[in-house]
């Protein structure tokens, strides 16, 4: 029975960020924000993906090196990636040489095929192989083609990395140093963060959410907390999160995500240890600190339930 429930929730997870089809409209404006002398990013919306927003619900960044442009993530549809390419050309005529992928959730990677066609090399954690060969990836693509048409259709496909990272690595790209750090399994098994030490900019992927509730799903929340502790050791001045606005208070914003995860685990651990039924435990938990964040009603109960199940498993 529990496996059935988990499978059902997993299907909800597959659909997260996807709404029922509506008539396609022009997506909201894509605005470049300069992060540092060499880095920029675009900010997705704090809402669910839909045809109306072309699945523009995540952030992506790029760094202009002396020899080319290095992307961090690729947005949630080919159309968005094409729009981002056009924006990059307003900044520099240099080619896009690499895309560093923080993780393989759909809203961050469905634009990869555009950058690949331009000759960019895709770099990701080797654990991505598990996702690429999974039913999860296939089902998510099928759901996206149905629910995000015409922005995701039968011409949209998953792109395999050209370079696999098996551990922490310093990458010299276009004459600039990018410190690649494996921080998964956390939000996903293949999580990576990329730090630009020369400008103290951290591209944190979905380890950091701002101005919205984090999506925990079936994440390894215990290791996610440990990963945030690891990122807190960087001398970071600016964080580009996976979702939400730029952070100029790096330590505070990483700690906010951390505090939510710790609270989630603490509340659900008490319930699991007391063998309190989940519905009762959820109702008795004070969520007032977080309930005004965008997407709280969509994600928090699912986050709590999956954490409740995870803690039951950890206790065995």
General description of the model:
The chain has 10 helices and 12 strands. Helix 7 runs antiparallel to helix 8 (250-273) and helix 8 packs across helix 10 (296-315). The protein is α/β, with parallel strands linked by helices and 316 residues long. Strand 11 (201-209), helix 7 and strand 12 form a beta-alpha-beta unit. It is globular, with a radius of gyration of 19 Å. The longest helix is centred in the last third of the chain and has 24 residues, at 250-273. The strands form 2 sheets. Strands 1-2-3-4-5-6-7 form a 7-stranded mixed β-sheet. Mean pLDDT is 90; it is low at 1-24.
Low-confidence stretches: 1-24
Helix content: 25-40%
Kindly state the number of beta strands.
Answer: 12
Radius of gyration: 19 Å
How far apart lie the N and C ends?
18 Å
Strand order of the largest sheet: 1-2-3-4-5-6-7
State the helix count. 10
Order of helices and strands: HEEEEHEHHEHHEEEEEHEHHH
Question: Mean of residue pLDDT?
Answer: 90
């Amino acid at each position: 029975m529990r496996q059935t429930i988990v499978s059902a929730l997993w299907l909800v997870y597959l659909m997260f960020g996807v709404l029922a089809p509506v008539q396609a409209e022009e997506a909201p404006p894509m605005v470049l924000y300069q992060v540092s002398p060499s880095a920029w990013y675009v900010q997705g919306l704090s809402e669910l993906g839909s045809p109306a927003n072309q699945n523009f619900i995540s952030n992506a960044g790029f760094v202009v090196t002396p020899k080319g442009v290095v992307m961090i993530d690729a947005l949630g549809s080919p159309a968005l990636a094409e729009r981002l390419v056009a924006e990059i050309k307003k900044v520099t005529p240099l080619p896009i040489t690499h895309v560093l992928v923080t993780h393989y959730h759909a809203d961050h990677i469905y634009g990869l095929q555009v950058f690949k066609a331009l000759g960019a090399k895709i770099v990701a954690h080797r654990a991505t192989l598990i996702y690429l060969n999974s039913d999860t990836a296939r089902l998510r693509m099928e759901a996206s083609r149905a629910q995000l048409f015409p922005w995701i259709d039968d011409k949209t496909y998953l792109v395999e990395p050209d370079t696999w990272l098996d551990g922490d690595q310093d990458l010299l790209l276009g004459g600039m140093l990018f410190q690649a750090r494996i921080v998964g399994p956390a939000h996903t098994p293949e999580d990576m963060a990329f730090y630009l030490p020369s400008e103290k900019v951290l591209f944190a992927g979905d380890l950091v959410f701002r101005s919205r509730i984090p999506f925990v799903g079936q994440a390894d929340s215990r290791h996610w907390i440990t990963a945030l502790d690891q990122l807190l050791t960087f001398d970071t001045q600016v964080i580009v999160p996976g979702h939400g606005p730029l952070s100029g208070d790096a330590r505070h914003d990483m700690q906010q995500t951390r505090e939510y995860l710790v609270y989630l685990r603490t509340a659900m651990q008490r319930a699991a240890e007391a063998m309190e039924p989940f519905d009762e435990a959820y109702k008795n938990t004070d969520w007032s600190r977080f309930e005004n964040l965008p997407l709280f009603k969509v994600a928090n109960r699912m986050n709590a339930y999956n954490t409740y199940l995870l803690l039951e498993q950890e206790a065995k």
